[in-house]
Each structure stands twice: as structure tokens, then as C-alpha cells.
Amino acid sequence: MCAICGCSEGAETRFTDSGGNAHAHPHNDGDTHAHGHRHDHHHGEGHTHSHEDPHEHLHGEEHAHLHEHRASVAMLHEPQHGNLLRIEQDVLARNNRMAERNRGWLEGRGVLALNLLSSPGAGKTSLLEKTVRALHSEIEMRVVEGDQETTLDAERIRAAGCQSVQVNTGTGCHLDASMLAQALRSLDPPRGSLLMIENVGNLVCPALFDLGEAAKIVILSVTEGQDKPLKYPHMFRAAQLMLLNKTDLLAHVDFDVQACLDHARRVNPEIELLQLSVRNGAGLEDWYAWLRARVAAAALRAVS
Amino acid sequence: MHELSVALGIVELCNERAGNARVRSVRLKVGTLCCVQAESLRFCFQVAAEGTALQGAALDIERVPAQSRCRDCGRAIEMQEALATCKCGSLNLEPPRGGNELRIICMEFEEAA
Fold first, then answer.
1. A29, A67, A96, A246: least CB-packed within 10 angstroms?
2. Do A72 and B17 touch (CB under 8 A)?
3. Domains, chain B, ranges and CATH?
């Protein structure tokens, strides 16, 4: 369920560990062994994501505006002038607080978290499968799969050789920060790993919800049309990197690559752009290089 | 579709603060780059407010433009929408500043009877 709202009301968010979290992985000392684990985090271990919306006082900063008290308490000490009650609160405050907790936890562990966004069918899951297979031996990876229904994607990622958790949002149209917090508890990504979050296929709503990721990556396929960055500017503005996928189909569709890239830059002058085809492998080495550099930088920042 | 989510969030927050009082209006600041559509939000707010202290309340939305600058002619630009064009015709603008607000500023209660 959304942290700020009821957009998934009536349909519970479900979390499914692929393979029940039993898995084998190499440890740093090279000793590989299999084990099943589902453990609880305790406070004092540096985890900041295990409580459900704790009450937060932010004293010194607009005191009394940022509380989430019940009305009877709030009315006593909030400034009310005549019939006007000042509130001064971000509508997304609860989600954003949770996202910052996730971000702190991830950065402290040197885990690079990337939020993958696209329309349904642009190739997010295929790209992840290929990436897992290619980088598995050099980078420890974990995947969070967001979909309204089914565990199909988590199973595909699992089959590719990567531990994953499926988040089903029910009627919800996006992942939110509390869903990621719960997925992190289940996945427990190791230090220095790469966490890929595949958001619900949707070019609108997920742009508004920070999860605590290091960067958003938008994937556009050439079958969708070159004007998508202009039609969905918020998503392309929020992204740090755009991947133009299915370039192997360029010969069969009317798609002007240069116009598309220009549209993306118009909406977001700082966006990075890579072209690739998951199907024939063109451009994938550039994508892997992009990932390698950022995984290494995230791990280094956590150590220093 | 996420405007309903946002509207429910606003109603929940304000309803908690209202106690037994009835709310006449809620004042919001919405940045022009925040992906929330004002008309859609107003409609959703009416629906979300039913049965709460905010039923029938007005939603007063102040749009806050993002600021940018034209890289060709140097003119300062207030972005009223996500895709802005400079008066000189250029699309080559600096990355925008601000425009992402989605804040509840205050609410006004009905006069006590």
C-alpha cells in the first residue's frame, strides 16, 4: 500500500521471495556454501528501515508543523490564527522520509540502487536477465521486481541466477519507499552489491515517488515512438540515464533516433543516453561499463 | 491516476488536524514541474473529502513556476509547464530550478456556530 495514499486500497501489497530466499553465494573468503535465511533486523545494527512510520520530531525547524499528531494534540500547540491553521507540510513527506532512510542504509553499505522505469514491454526484465548473466561473476546483484500481479518476473530473474523479491502492488500504479524498505529487509543486499529495482511499468506515476535509489533509469524502446520524452516529460526529467532499447528493430519501424535524443535532452539537458539492443547485444558493453563504474564508486564512498 | 493518491494523502493529513472543526478550504502550492495535474487533483480531492471534515472544502492551488534561463539569449524564464520555450524561440534552456513543490500551506475552518 502506498505510503501516502490508498491507491492500492482493497488490494494488499504482497512480497514474494523467489526460492524462499534459500540460495548459495560465495563469501569474501572464497568459501561458497548454501543456506536459507530469513532474519529480522534489530536496531543498533545501522538499519534504519525496519520501523513502520515512527513519529519524527524535527525541532528547530518550523516546530509544530511537522508532527503527525492526532488532532486533539495538534490543535493545542500549532499556530492557529483566526480560522487559519498553518500546516506547511510536503504532501509526500512520509514517503520522502522513508526514502531518505533507505538511501542512508544503502549508501552506508555501499549498495548501488537503481530504479528502472519504462512503459510495460520496453524490455526492463529482459535487460535485467541479460545483465545478471553477464555481470553475475564480477558483481553481486539483487533484484526487486515490481508488478501489479504475478511473480513471473522474479522467477525469470531467479532463473538467470540472481536472488530477487517480487512486490505485487495490487491496484497500485507505482512502488513507494515503504515497499522498498520491506523488500530490503527480505533481500538483505550485501556490501558493495548492485540492487536493481524494476518499477511497475508506467511512464507517469513512478516519477513522483522517491524510493531512496541512487539514480532513476528510464528505458524507451524504438517501437514506442520518438516523441515519448515530450509526452511524458516528468519521467525523462527525473531520470539520470535513458536507455534506448530494441535498436535491432530500427530497420522495421519509423523511428528517428536523433529526434528522440533531442527530445530527451530538451526535457532534461543533463540526461545521459545509451543505445542498445538486449536482443542482439549491440551497445550492452557500454551499459555494463556504466554500471561497473558506478558500483565501484558507491562501494568506495561507503569505505571512505 | 496518482492524483487520487495525492488527494487521499492531503485529506488524511488535514482531517487528522481538523479535530471537530469543519474545513472551508485547503491551500496548496504545486510546482509546475511536479507531475500533478491541478484539475484532476481538484476532482479527486472532492471525492476523497467525502465523509471527512473536509467534505465540500475548496482546494486552493497556487502554481509555482520553475525558473530557468535561455542558453542562447540569456533571458530569465518562468516555466509555466514542463516544456517551455524561450521568447527568442530557443529550446536550449538551463536545467530548471524549483518547480517540484507539492506542499499543503494551510487550511481555513468554517466559523464556529
1. A29
2. no
3. 2-65+98-109 (3.30.2320.50)
